[in-house]
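User: I'm curious whether this sequence folds into something compact or stays loose and floppy. Could you predict its structure so I can see for myself?
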Amino acid sequence: MTDPVSIDLSSDAHFMAQALRQAARAYEADEVPVGAVIVREGRVVASAHNQVETLKDATAHAEMLALTAAENALGDWRLEGCTLFVTKEPCPMCAGAIVHCRVARVVFGAADPKGGAAGSALNLLQFPTLNHRCDITAGVAEAECRALLRSFFQEKRAGTAGTP
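Assistant: Here's the prediction. I'll summarize afterward.
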């Protein structure tokens, strides 16, 4: 029997690679390249990428879209036992939704020192007075996640974004 606290890093890398594929889809659509995958019992139940510009919806972050898709797939707004893999540290809006959905664990790639709400700027995922706290694993495929974001914003500043 395996220790329930131990983390299978090869599994984390596998699912983060799927989140990175979602982020690449966002990049191709000229969206900030963030991708998210939600996993329960080793199976992907939802995946999404940023669609803020496409949907003209400030709440259409990859995490928010993935949460909604997972709720629909599982038939419950409570996502207990699920792990969210996301290429960039969740913002406060997404972190709040993650807590309210009771996601068990959040795995992210690139930290966001200015606005990250999973430990960088603040930590809403483990805020002591909220009704739920998530386990956090930071820095999975960090170099790849950061490189995709950096490339996008460099190209955006140069006027050539949307072509990875």
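Summary: The longest helix spans residues 9-28. The mean pLDDT is 93.
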